[in-house]
Amino acid sequence: MTGEHDAEARFCEQLRALGHPARLAILRALEERSRCCCGDFCRDLPLAQSTVSQHLKVLTESGLVRLERAGLRSNYTLDLQALFQLRAALDRVLAARAAPAEEEVRAEIGQCRC
Which residue ranges does the record assign to the HTH arsR-type domain (predicted)? Predict the structure, then answer.
């Protein structure tokens, strides 16, 4: 049961990490460039370096972004495995609700008097 609880907690942590526009912008930048340092994000986002660092910390702690140290430089990359696992978890959540939701939408469309 602990493993299932840990996975659920990780899932929640990752969803929270995605809940801020700056963190989504950081993920998009990493997708485009594959590797960035904090200064790269500071140039692209209208945020102070300390704010960017805090967002990177949240993304790193959630497991969605990896930190790689190269001497004095810290590079950030997407953790694709973690992102695919998050996507799979979301797919499972949506699949459990998909059939009833489709029926509700079809019923609403059928009742539409547009």
Answer: 3-97
